[in-house]
Amino acid sequence: MAKLTFIAGLAAGYVLGARAGRQRYEQIRQTSGRVWNSGPVQKQVSTAKEVARTKAAPVVADMVADAARATGDKLRSTRTVAGEAIPGSGDNNGTPGTDPWASATRADGAA
Predict the structure, then answer these.
(1) Contact partners, residue 42, CB within 8 Å, separation at least 6
(2) How many degrees, rounded to 5, is the angle at CA 58 between CA 37 and CA 44?
(3) DSSP state of 83
(4) What mean pLDDT do residues 33-55 have?
(5) Is 90 helix (H, G, I), strand (E, B) or coil?
(6) φ/ψ bin of 16: left (φ > 0), alpha (ψ from -120 to 50), beta (otherwise)
(7) pTM of the prediction?
(8) Predicted pLDDT of residue 37
(9) What gap in Å lies between CA 25 and CA 32, rounded to an integer?
(10) Phi (first) and psi of residue 21, to 5 degrees
(11) Residue 96 burial (CB < 10 Å; 0-12/13-18/19+)?
(12) Is the pLDDT of residue 40 over 70?
């Protein structure tokens, strides 16, 4: 993957820095378009999309869920002043009451 990124950067640098004029630019653009639309490249693109869908998406979803859970825990733990507590959210010692946010984000998964 790093090699492909390097080659893409090299090609972009050449196109942007070339002083060969419009004709050379058009030649490079047409060649790159043919390469991009070729069967082997599109096969790899679809493979990469499938890998991202099946492997990366669950990992990202887990990371987002963990971050949301940690944020909820931190928000609940910062309610230290009795006057700031939400009425009906528990007895102010950390036990969940009828607070819908607390019951939806409990670490044990019960909702």
Answers:
(1) 36
(2) 15
(3) G
(4) 91
(5) strand
(6) alpha
(7) 0.39
(8) 93
(9) 11
(10) 100, -175
(11) middle
(12) yes
Contact between 64 and 54 (Cβ < 8 Å): no
Residue type, 81: V
Residue 75 corresponds to which amino acid?
Answer: L
Give the confidence band of 99 by pLDDT, cuts at 50, 70, 90. Answer: low
Give, as one character, the DSSP assignment of residue 21.
Answer: -
In one-letter notation, the amino acid at residue 38 is S
- Residue 14 corresponds to which tokens in the numbers above? 């050449």
Residue position matching structure tokens 């971050």: 67
Sole residue written with tokens 């653009």: 29
Q: Give residue for tokens 């990992």.
A: 59
User: Is residue 97 packed enough to be buried (19+ CB in 10 Å), middle (13-18) or exposed (0-12)?
Assistant: middle
The stretches of the chain forming alpha helices (DSSP H) are 2-17, 22-36, 39-51, 57-77, 100-104
- What crossing angle do the helices spanning 22-36 and 2-17 adopt, rounded to 10°? 160
Q: Are the beta carbons of 62 and 68 closer than 8 angstroms?
A: no
